[in-house]
């Protein structure tokens, strides 16, 4: 049925809160790295520009949904482009959470090993300091059991906790800006306006703002769901999310400038205990978000291959969950550099899902000529999105073939100086 047949119960404020929650996630730890790649000035412009573009694409996505009377992203794309559109979207909707889960494993490997080395005084080459061992144990003991839940509503309650933790980490990042001023050498050019890694930065930023897969759910939950109310919620949510993301970027970049890693926590020293608390808290939110992404991936696979032919059953549920958890583990052993994983997810999945498809769908279902005033922004969005996705994918592939570099879990060189002036 169409939208008119029901109305949710969430107020504008509640919906905005869930919206921000849906945007602010693990992507925030990559924002300082995006500023390092694009250059400080250019990076900040991109962060604000992407907030505006994301806002616009979310508004036209729902507008297209209302125009076609569809209530899910899949139905909308199918209404516009038929089955080819549906399958393309299905593929993207699989890739996005799948790579997100790989990035979560990389983060778990980054953070937990450092904390264990600190708490249990294990050496990095012992089993508790081995990231693959840590990630497989985390998978088997935490994320797999949580992912086996068939009902996701229990997990969604956790999202409030996650947001609070991320805001606390933001507080930590901002408060600690000063402590690295002396320790981190400021290199010439560390505040360059623009740098050559713009496409990499765009991938990371697109990943950070991504929330389109939840937009229809948020709209359906809104009390009196009209386009005007949705636009209002979108503007509020994107403005506040943009503030949080920009603060993460500035806080991280001002602290570490050209040394900013794809995983901001890699920049803090192993013996920095407040950072270790932040690491543990962040790992907790990651482990609780993983099952939600797993749920999405499983649903997509289920809808693509089984639903029409076989009813759902427990055995298949368990096998699919095991398959997803083990494959994401296997992929996460290929690299310990979070930056490249975020970039790839940005260009392969986030940009098509968040910018190209909403714009293309809107152009298709909205009445009027292609070059009318109403459609020109969407046309530009689709064209630019496609260009960025193609360039970004090429750059990422070239990067991977050249060998990806990051700190590989080693302490940064400024940690090795006498600890007295860092921990004060």
TrEMBL record:
GO terms for molecular function: L-amino acid transmembrane transporter activity. Residues 9-397 form the Amino acid transporter transmembrane domain. It holds the Pfam family Aa_trans. Coiled coil: none annotated. Its main location: membrane. It is found in: Membrane. The keyword Membrane applies. GO terms for cellular component: membrane. The keyword Transport applies. Keywords: Amino-acid transport, Membrane, Transmembrane, Transmembrane helix, Transport. It is a multi-pass membrane protein. The chain crosses the membrane at residues 12-35, 41-66, 86-108, 160-181, 201-222, 234-256, 317-341, 347-365, 377-398. It comes from the Eukaryota. Belongs to the amino acid/polyamine transporter 2 family. Putative sodium-dependent amino acid/proton antiporter. This is Putative sodium-coupled neutral amino acid transporter 11.
């Amino acid at each position: 049925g169409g939208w008119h047949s029901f109305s949710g119960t969430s107020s504008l404020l509640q919906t905005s809160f869930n919206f921000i929650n849906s945007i602010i996630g693990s992507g925030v730890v990559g924002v300082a790295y995006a500023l390092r790649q694009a250059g400080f000035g250019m990076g900040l412009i991109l962060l604000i520009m992407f907030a505006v573009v994301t806002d616009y694409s979310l508004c036209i996505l729902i507008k297209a949904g209302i125009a076609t009377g569809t209530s899910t992203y899949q139905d909308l794309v199918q209404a516009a482009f038929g089955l080819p559109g549906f399958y393309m979207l299905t593929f993207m909707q699989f890739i996005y959470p799948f790579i997100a889960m790989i990035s979560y494993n990389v983060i778990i490997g980054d953070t937990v090993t450092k904390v264990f080395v600190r708490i249990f005084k294990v050496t990095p080459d012992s089993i508790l300091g081995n990231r693959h061992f840590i990630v497989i144990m985390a998978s088997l003991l935490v994320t797999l059991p949580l992912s086996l839940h068939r009902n996701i509503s229990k997990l969604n309650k956790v999202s409030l906790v996650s947001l609070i933790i991320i805001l606390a980490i933001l507080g930590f990042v901002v408060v600690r800006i000063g402590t690295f001023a002396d320790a981190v050498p400021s290199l010439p050019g560390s505040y360059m306006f623009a740098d050559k890694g713009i496409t990499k930065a765009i991938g990371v930023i697109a990943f950070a703002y991504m929330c389109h897969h939840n937009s229809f759910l948020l709209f359906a939950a809104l009390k009196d769901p009209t386009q005007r109310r949705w636009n209002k919620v979108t503007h509020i949510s994107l403005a506040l999310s943009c503030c949080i993301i920009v603060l993460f970027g500035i806080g991280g970049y001002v602290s570490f400038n050209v040394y900013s890693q794809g995983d901001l926590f890699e920049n803090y020293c192993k013996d920095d205990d407040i950072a270790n608390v932040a690491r543990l808290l962040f790992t907790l939110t990651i482990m609780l978000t993983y099952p939600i992404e797993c749920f999405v991936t499983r649903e997509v696979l289920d809808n693509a291959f089984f639903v029409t032919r076989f009813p759902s059953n427990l055995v298949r549920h368990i096998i699919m969950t095991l398959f997803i958890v083990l494959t994401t583990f296997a992929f996460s052993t290929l690299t310990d550099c979070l930056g490249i994983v975020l970039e790839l997810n940005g260009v392969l999945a986030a940009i098509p899902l968040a910018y190209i498809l909403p714009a293309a769908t809107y152009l298709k279902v909205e009445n009027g000529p292609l070059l009318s005033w109403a459609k020109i922004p969407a046309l530009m969005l689709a064209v630019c999105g496609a260009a960025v996705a193609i360039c970004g994918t090429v750059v990422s592939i070239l990067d991977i073939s050249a060998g990806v570099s990051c700190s590989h879990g080693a302490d940064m060189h400024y940690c090795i100086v006498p600890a007295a002036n860092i921990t004060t």
